[in-house]
Amino acid sequence: MGQIHRIFCVLFVLTVISACAMDSPALGYTRGDAKTIELSGNTYKVYSEINGNRVEAHRVNAVFPPPSRLLILQQAHEAIVRTTGCDVKKGSLVGDQAIVKAIVQCTTA
């Protein structure tokens, strides 16, 4: 019984760790389409709300040592602008080296 319990615990921990590593957006973005873009060696998946103006940019490649937060914010800003075709609302870009969130302002022509 002890061996089965240990095996179950190991499998459970591996499952939880694997789930944490998945690239998935927040709930409001799950039905939106993701666009992938590469900028200076970093790959981003940009998720947009279906009926909204919020976006998430996920850096999906592994780099060691991690790039600076400022570099990632600049690249995520560019990735969002390129994939959505909209400007990022001033002061709305927030995030870290993995996930950046923003509000976009699209002009209708």
TrEMBL record:
Q: Which domain of life is it from?
A: Bacteria
From the UniProt annotation, give the residues forming the signal peptide: 1-21
Cite the entry's keywords alphabetically. Answer: Signal
Q: What is this protein called?
A: Lipoprotein
Question: Could you tell me which species this protein originates from?
Answer: Pacificibacter maritimus
